[in-house]
Each structure stands twice: as structure tokens, then as C-alpha cells.
Amino acid sequence: MDFKFTEEEEVFKRVVKEFCEKHIAPVWVDLDEKGYFPAELYRKMADQGFFGIAIKPEYGGAGGTMVMSAIAVEEIAYADPQVAIPVYTLLQNGWPLALQIFGSEEAKNEILPRVVKNEAFFGIATTENQGGSDLAGTRVTAEKKGSTWFLNGEKMYISGVGELRELPWGGGFWILTRTGGMDRGHRALTAYAFLAKKEGKNVGGFEPTVMDEIGRRGLTTGGFKLTDVEIEDRYRIGDVDRGFYLSMEGFNIARILVAAACIGAGRWALDQAVEWFKQRKLFGKHISSFQGVSFRFAELYAQLEAAKYFVYKAAWMADKIYLEKDTSFKPSDLNVPVAMAKLTAPETCVRALEETMKWYGAYGYSKECPLYRAWLGCFSYVIGAEGAQNIMRYIIARDVIGKEYVE
Ligand SMILES: Cc1cc2nc3c(=O)[nH]c(=O)nc-3n(C[C@H](O)[C@H](O)[C@H](O)COP(=O)(O)OP(=O)(O)OC[C@H]3O[C@@H](n4cnc5c(N)ncnc54)[C@H](O)[C@@H]3O)c2cc1C
């Protein structure tokens, strides 16, 4: 057992932290207020190597790890707790790593070096209108004619649709599609690296829309319609009809980073609380002298620290499985650690923000106080971005109790 970051990880953490203090903390409120694409900031982040951290040098990356990706996302979320910048960062790390593990050489050579330089975006598109949790009900179809696949249907609530417009080269999504009858459920789904925009042009038949959301305004969420969109077979990820299983492994990677973002935002919330406790006096005492306040703070601090262990244990295990190819772990060993991290980190972070808003009193309810921005942004992960919370409970129950006893 070793509960310390390595020296290299500590140095990396310091570099990210210093960058965040200088470039992200001063702009996050403005970004949330105005909702724009911070192109120059992302250029600087790419220069620092914050996108595609675990991408290997042969695909243009620096060959870092998932632990380093989690460190970066956590620190970025501490500096931007409304989480637009950390979520953009986690998407640019999680799904490109999944592509590195499961994609074809041609797709990896084309997409990954561009993600590292932030010329291209690579996110995830599984959700459809009829219900994101039930992927067995996926309706977007992919049909093969010759060596080309034709995609039809509609995806909804997809992060990064607007950002594609802004990036010079373009990019797209790990997309999940139906390649067999509905009666075959999740056993007839195939994944592709779908480049919705390439060399500066949207592909034919791709119609994006951007939604208006209550928070996280520095990052867009939208949908898109696909009408006979052509995808060459080299963009297929894994075997036909294996897409559900590979996407679940991709979610295991991405959810670690989602949870890391919530740890960063939660830490920020509790630090705001400590600052407030030092100033606010009532009945002649600091409000943290009342145990009704300080005990609740202590509980939240402990819960956040526990969630942080889940995050880094899961990141460490992902490194063993996918980067070190340590055969003493199976990919499915990640299910429970990841679900525990994704279940606990967003819930604790949002509770920490709510309690801190209450400790701030009426000021916490004013727009001048930025806590509500973080609350609205992080709540996206309690609602269900990258997987609903009950799905995390289901995964834990299924793997611990046994599938035959929970279905
Ligand atoms: C800000 C934001 C960004 C997003 N970005 C992306 C993205 O980039 N790509 C993408 O593909 N999707 C994205 N999503 C969609 C996200 O993945 C879905 O919201 C999520 O999978 C849940 O699907 P749903 O919203 O359709 O809710 P539903 O699946 O309809 O679930 C509704 C409710 O039912 C509960 N529920 C569902 N199934 C069960 C069950 N078996 N047992 C008990 N309770 C259950 C859920 O917990 C939830 O509370 C994003 C969502 C948000 C809010």
C-alpha cells in the first residue's frame, strides 16, 4: 500500500495548480456568466499537455497516466468549480484514452495527435431521447453497404456539440449505434469514432443543435440528427455488436475523471466555508464554534476525502489494467471502484456546496456570491451526466450481490 503520489505526480500537480491559479481561477465566473469558448486558454492548456495526458508518444501524447489525468482534472475543477473547463478537459482525456485502447490504428493516428493539440475534440455520444440509462434501447442505426456504414437517427444531451464549431479541425464522438434488431438489445450495438467535423467542415447529414442549460455555461450540451451519415469501416471501434461492452469500459475510464472534477469542486466549496468561518461571527463567536456547523463541516470533509480515495484507487487500477497491462486485474474489476467514485463524489460535492451556501446565509443566495454557479454546474453529475446515480447503485449491487439476485 502506498498512499503517496510519486515525485513525478507531485511535480505535475504543482504545475497544473500554478497554471490554474494564473489562468483559470481569474476567468471562471466570467466564463460561466457569458458562456463562450475560451480558445486562447485551451491553446495554453494544450501547450502544457493537459489534453490526452495518457496518450502515448506514438499518437502525439506524453505517455502519462490516469492518475495524472485525475490530478489535472481535480486541480482544474478547484479553479473552475462550475466545471465547464474541467469537463472539457476530462472529455479530452477520457474518451481519447478509450479510443487509444480500442480504436483502429488509422483512427488513432488521425484523431489522437489532434486532440492532444486541441485541434480536435473527442467526446461521447450514447444518449438518446428515449432514455440515456437504457442503452439496450439505442435506436440510432448503422447499416453497412460495401466498406461504408450509414448512420441514421438522433442523439441528445451530448457535451461538446458547440465546441466542435469552434475548433479549427473539428472532431467528434465515440458514438454507439444499433447494428441488429431491437430484440437483440445491448448485444447488437456497435461503436464508431464518428468525426462530425473534419478538416474544418461538418460531414454531410450531420445537423447539430445546442440547448440552453441552467448551469455549466462555459461548455455546450446539445443534440444532433444523423441522416445517411457515411462512416468508413476504419472508424469502427472494436468488433461489430461489441459496442455496448466497449462503451461500458470507456465509461469506467471517463467516470473516474468526472468524480475527480467533483472532488476539486467539493474541495473548493469547503475551502470557501473555512474562509467564511474565519470572518463570520454571531452571538459573539465564529459560526464554526457552533457544533451544528462544525460537525456538519467535519462530516462533509470526511466524506469528500473518502470519495477522493475511491477516485485515485480507480485511477490507479485503470493504469494497471490499460497502461501497464497487469493481468492480475480484469477490466470488470474497475466496475465497483468506479461506480463508488461516481456515486459519492458528485453527491458529496453538491451537498458541500449546499451547506456552504447555507453557512453564507442570505449572501449565499445572491448572484454576487459565486457558490450557486458551482452548485448548478456540479448538479449535472447528480442528474446523470456520464451515467445516472441509480445506475451507479445498480452496478455496485449487481457486482457485489450477484447479477442473478438483483435482476
Ligand atoms: C450536462 C449534461 C451533459 C451530458 N453530456 C452527455 C454526453 O456528452 N454524451 C452522452 O451520451 N450523454 C450525455 N448526457 C446524458 C447523460 O448520460 C444522461 O442524462 C444519463 O445517462 C441519464 O439518462 P437520462 O437523462 O435520459 O435519464 P433516464 O435514463 O431517463 O433516467 C431518469 C431517472 O431514472 C432513474 N433510473 C434510470 N434507470 C433506473 C434503474 N434501472 N433503477 C432505478 N432508477 C433508474 C435515473 O437515476 C434517473 O434519475 C449529459 C447529461 C447532462 C445533464
Global outline: globular
Architecture of the largest domain, according to CATH?
Answer: Up-down Bundle
Largest sheet: 5 strands, mixed
Q: If you average the pLDDT, what whole number results?
A: 97
What's the CATH H-level superfamily name of the largest domain? Butyryl-CoA Dehydrogenase, subunit A, domain 3
Assembly type: single chain
Low-confidence region ranges:
none
* CATH fold node name of the largest domain: Butyryl-CoA Dehydrogenase, subunit A, domain 3
Instruction: Estimate what percentage of residues fall within beta strands.
Output: 15-25%
What is the CATH class designation of the largest domain?
A: Mainly Alpha
**Small molecules bound in the structure, each named once:** flavin-adenine dinucleotide
Taken in chain order, the helices and strands follow as HHHHHHEEEHEEEEEEHEEHHHHH
Task: Describe, in short, the structure shown.
The chain is an alpha+beta fold and 407 residues long. Helix content is 52%, strand content 16%.
What do you see in this structure?
The chain is an alpha+beta fold and 407 residues long. It has three domains: 7-119, Acyl-CoA dehydrogenase/oxidase, N-terminal domain (Butyryl-Coa Dehydrogenase, subunit A, domain 1, Orthogonal Bundle), CATH 1.10.540; 121-237, Butyryl-CoA Dehydrogenase, subunit A, domain 2, CATH 2.40.110.10; 251-406, Butyryl-CoA Dehydrogenase, subunit A, domain 3 (Up-down Bundle). The protein is 52% helix and 16% strand. The chain contains 13 helices and eleven strands. Strands 1, 4, 5, 6 and 9 form a five-stranded mixed sheet that branches. Strand 10 (281-282) and strand 11 form a beta hairpin. Helix 4 runs antiparallel to helix 5 (84-102). It starts with 6 loop residues before the first helix and ends with a helix. The site of flavin-adenine dinucleotide has 22 residues, from strand 1, strand 3, helix 11 and helix 12.
